[in-house]
């Protein structure tokens, strides 16, 4: 058997193995109880901790570099394909090779993504662990949770008498975020976080204009933060991304887990950061039902909190650009493919978690 036949046979069996693995993963996604028991609280935690240990010590974001290289290679591949079409160099053999290569890469990415993190989209999650369940909430529920958040927000802002909040260094924020998770783990042991891997995104201002505040890279286990945003938002967003690292793939669950950690912190900045973000979600949701009442909620905020909201609005105005809607559209479709039917609206579902938690435990 010649070399070409050997390579062809290896490629064939490689594709078959990857297809079987992908099929088994797809079948497994239909059994959230098994995923919760054997993957999310069994296989995943030590694997995720190992990835954070392996890569977390790097002073830069390896995930950003991988995404950048992948993007360049995809653009280059498309360019070469179009060039070959124009020069009429594309034949059946070349096309077959390109499609086979694309299939292998797609299957490898799918299998690795799900084994490294993606199966967490199908777990039972925080609802199972806290024995609470979200449900449709009423206008009265929304007003109730907004009343609580307005008071929490005003009270926590009182710890910072200056108009502009003085923020510690980024490294201190990352360390304090890990301390917040240590504190919450005393109450909820499954939120134990070890082996920090939180990075400043290398995209910098480009990330600012693409519209992301932070993201989790499932291929490297790193949490990336866009540090160009108003800095008082960073503590809660850091806790949100760490929630993803712990295996809470759903955006609403990661937001709720981040809230649990931030509000268990001994640092008042974390509580303020969390209440600020959650009030933004809750009152925006309320505005869709009763815009007048939502304005009244906002007017009940003290002067310094309103000043912080102005800072966020100014930031969003400066970063508005034609690319952001396209990025959000892509991410919206990504979320829908991964079992989050509401897409970008999944972030707002954290309001339902807050209401359910408040009803069961009597306090947020």
Summarize the structure.
The protein has helices at residues 3-28, 32-56, 62-86, 92-116, 126-130, 139-157, 170-187, 204-210, 234-245, 251-263, 268-287, 291-299, 303-319, 323-337, 350-361, and strands at residues 198-200, 214-217, 222-225.
Topology diagram in text:
Layout: H1 3-28, H2 32-56, H3 62-86, H4 92-116, H5 126-130, H6 139-157, H7 170-187, E1 198-200, H8 204-210, E2 214-217, E3 222-225, H9 234-245, H10 251-263, H11 268-287, H12 291-299, H13 303-319, H14 323-337, H15 350-361
Parallel strand pairs: 1-3
Antiparallel strand pairs: 2-3
CA-to-CA gap between the ends?
69 Å
DSSP strand tally: 3
Would you tell me the overall average pLDDT?
Answer: 86
Low-pLDDT runs of 5+ residues are none
Strand coverage percent: under 5%
Envelope shape? globular
The strand order across the widest sheet is: 1-3-2
Order of helices and strands: HHHHHHHEHEEHHHHHHH
Helix content: 55-70%
Radius of gyration of CA atoms, rounded to a whole number: 23 Å
| Structural category | mainly alpha
Number of helices: 15
Q: Biggest sheet, open or closed, and with what strands and sense?
A: 3 strands, mixed
């Amino acid at each position: 058997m010649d070399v070409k036949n050997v390579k062809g046979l290896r490629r064939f069996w490689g594709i078959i193995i990857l297809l079987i693995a992908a099929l088994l993963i797809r079948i497994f996604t239909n059994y959230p109880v098994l995923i919760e028991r054997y993957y999310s609280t069994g296989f995943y935690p030590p694997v995720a901790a190992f990835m954070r240990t392996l890569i977390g010590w790097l002073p830069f974001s390896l995930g950003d570099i991988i995404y950048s290289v992948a993007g360049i290679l995809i653009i280059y591949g498309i360019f070469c394909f179009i060039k070959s079409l124009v020069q009429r160099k594309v034949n059946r053999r070349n096309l077959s090779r390109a499609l086979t290569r694309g299939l292998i890469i797609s299957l490898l990415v799918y299998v690795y993504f799900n084994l490294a993190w993606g199966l967490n989209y199908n777990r039972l999650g925080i609802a199972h662990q806290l024995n609470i369940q979200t449900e449709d909430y009423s206008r009265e529920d929304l007003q109730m949770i907004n009343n609580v958040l307005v008071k929490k927000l005003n009270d926590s802002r009182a710890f910072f008498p200056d108009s502009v909040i003085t923020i510690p260094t980024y490294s201190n924020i990352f360390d304090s975020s890990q301390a917040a998770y240590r504190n919450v783990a005393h109450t909820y042991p499954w939120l134990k976080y070890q082996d920090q891997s939180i990075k400043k995104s290398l995209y910098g201002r480009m990330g600012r204009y693409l519209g992301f505040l932070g993201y989790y890279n499932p291929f490297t286990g790193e949490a990336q933060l866009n540090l160009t945003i108003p800095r008082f938002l960073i503590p809660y967003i850091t806790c949100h991304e760490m929630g993803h690292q712990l295996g809470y793939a759903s955006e609403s669950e990661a937001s709720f887990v981040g809230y649990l950690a931030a509000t268990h912190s001994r640092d008042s900045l974390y509580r303020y950061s969390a209440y600020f973000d959650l009030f933004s979600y809750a009152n925006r949701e309320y505005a869709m039902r009763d815009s007048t009442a939502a304005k009244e909620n906002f007017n009940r905020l003290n002067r310094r909190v309103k000043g912080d909201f102005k800072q966020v609005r100014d930031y969003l105005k400066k970063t508005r650009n034609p690319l952001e809607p396209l990025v959000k559209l892509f991410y919206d479709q990504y979320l829908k493919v991964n079992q989050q039917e509401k897409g970008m609206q999944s972030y707002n579902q954290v309001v339902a978690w807050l209401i359910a938690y408040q009803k069961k435990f009597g306090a947020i």
